[in-house]
């Protein structure tokens, strides 16, 4: 099989490419240049796509004896990931840029070009698995190592994309074994730190970075009843579940902390309240996609049992869901967790599972708190 190996410059992608070579595939390595002005060096585990990463990817390919290329995807990355990130925050939502990068760059732009060039699959160092289902169609599944499982950020993959994915690290029990294998193979990235945080905000100051790109204006901080409690510096800089940085200046009546319950960019308002008001019992997801064959009961509009995850490495909870049409006629998912959840914010991705299988995902458009939705006196 002719395989294009996406080489990030890290240990996972290097070992994944090595295993693809060992499996007898015809492998070509490619590093994606995602920034027009990359930093010369990483700062420990912060940042990626730097000149150092490109050099590490090249060295790995040299060691493996496979061709190496660098493809400039910086313009598309800026439009589909960075600009989208800013637009989502400006609209009062909390996006996941890693998930969007997988959707738009690594498994859309990259895979599209790979297929045009005659490759059969794209190989990456993601911790996830592709397995045939009962109907013979390929499905996306969790990896063997729960601590490193990345199926959540791959939940945006479509059935067609899953069919062209190769994840050689799927059954590896731990990251320590991957590093040990890299060392045995003489790969210089064996002990290279993993990258963390948002790659295009290497200093980790998301609020400061957004403040340079979104026009922030002071506005009211109000309680659930509309009482004005303070003033914020810009509603778009807040996210649901946030506790720090409210600067209200006076404690709640019960003396307990307040949290951001809702961000209203249209009237530049931040709503805050007690922790219990963060509880969510119903989620509406838009732009749903299936990572394999849709469930028959879902196609018929019936409720189906599943498990829900709404943040990377977050808790997995039992739920039920159904596919329905929104007011605009577009498909959406209605999801009801078996127990109330906290910290659910519009813009996040709700990824549905059945056992280890990834069913698919939808972008959270609304999350209902039963107490806030109930009529007065109920």
Q: Would you kindly provide a written description of the structure presented here, covering whatever features stand out?
A:
Helices cover 24% and strands 27% of the residues. It is of the alpha/beta class and 378 residues long. The protein has 3 domains: 2-184, HUPs (Rossmann fold), CATH 3.40.50.620; 206-277, SH3 type barrels, CATH 2.30.30.280; 279-373, Translation factors (Elongation Factor Tu (Ef-tu), domain 3, Beta Barrel). The strands form 3 sheets. It has a 6-stranded antiparallel barrel with strand order 12-15-14-13-16-17. A 5-stranded parallel β-sheet has the order 3-2-1-4-7, with helices on both faces. It has a 4-stranded mixed β-sheet with strand order 9-8-11-10, with no helix packed on it.
Main attributes of the structure:
single chain; 378 residues; alpha/beta; Rossmann fold; SH3 type barrels; Elongation Factor Tu (Ef-tu), domain 3; six-stranded antiparallel β-barrel; five-stranded parallel sheet; 9 helices; globular; disordered C terminus
Q: Any idea what the CATH superfamily of the largest domain is called? A: HUPs
Low-confidence segments, given as residue ranges, are: 40-47, 374-378
Supply the number of structural domains: 3
CATH architecture classification name of the largest domain: 3-Layer(aba) Sandwich
Rg over CA atoms, rounded to whole Å, is: 22 Å
CATH topology of the largest domain: Rossmann fold
Strand order of the largest sheet: 12-15-14-13-16-17
Count of individual helical segments: 9
Question: End-to-end distance, in Å?
Answer: 62 Å
Total beta-strand segments: 17
Would you tell me the overall average pLDDT? Answer: 88
Q: Which strand-content bin applies to the residues?
A: 25-35%
> Fraction of residues in helices?
10-25%
Q: What is the overall shape?
A: globular
The SSE string, one letter per element, is EHEHEHHEEEHEHHEEEEEHEEEEEH
């Amino acid at each position: 099989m002719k395989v294009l190996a996406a080489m990030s410059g890290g240990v996972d992608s290097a070992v994944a490419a090595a295993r693809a070579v060992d499996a007898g595939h015809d492998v070509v390595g490619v590093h994606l240049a995602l920034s027009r002005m990359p930093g010369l060096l990483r700062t420990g585990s912060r940042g990626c796509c730097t000149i150092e990463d490109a050099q590490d990817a090249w060295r790995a390919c040299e060691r493996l004896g496979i061709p190496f290329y660098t493809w400039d995807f910086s313009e598309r990355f800026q439009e589909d990931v960075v600009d989208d990130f800013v637009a989502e925050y400006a609209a009062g939502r909390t996006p996941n840029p890693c998930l969007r990068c997988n959707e738009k760059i690594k498994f859309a732009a990259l895979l599209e070009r790979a297929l045009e060039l005659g490759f059969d699959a794209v190989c990456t160092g993601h911790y996830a698995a592709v397995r045939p289902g009962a109907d013979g169609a390929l499905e996306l599944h969790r990896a063997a190592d729960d601590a490193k499982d990345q199926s959540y950020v791959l939940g945006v993959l479509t059935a067609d994309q899953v069919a062209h994915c190769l994840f050689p690290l799927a059954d590896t029990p731990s990251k320590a074994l991957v590093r040990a294998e890299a060392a045995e193979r003489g790969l210089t990235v064996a002990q290279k730190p993993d990258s963390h945080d948002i790659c295009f905000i290497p200093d980790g100051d998301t609020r400061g970075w957004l403040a340079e790109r979104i026009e922030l204006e002071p506005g009211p901080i109000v309680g659930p009843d509309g009482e004005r409690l303070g003033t914020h510096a810009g509603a778009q800089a807040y996210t649901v579940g946030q506790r720090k940085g409210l600067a209200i200046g006076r404690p709640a009546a019960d003396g307990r902390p307040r949290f951001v319950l809702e961000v209203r960019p249209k009237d530049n308002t931040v709503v805050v309240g007690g922790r219990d008001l963060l509880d969510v019992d119903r989620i509406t997801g838009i732009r749903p996609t299936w990572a394999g064959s849709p469930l028959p009961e879902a196609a018929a509009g019936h409720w189906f049992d599943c498990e829900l995850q709404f943040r990377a490495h977050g808790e997995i909870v039992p739920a039920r869901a159904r596919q329905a049409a929104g007011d605009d006629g577009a498909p959406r998912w209605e999801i009801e967790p078996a127990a109330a959840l906290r910290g659910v914010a519009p813009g996040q991705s709700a990824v549905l599972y059945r056992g280890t299988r990834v069913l698919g995902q939808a972008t959270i458009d609304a999350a209902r708190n039963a107490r806030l939705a109930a009529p007065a006196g109920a």
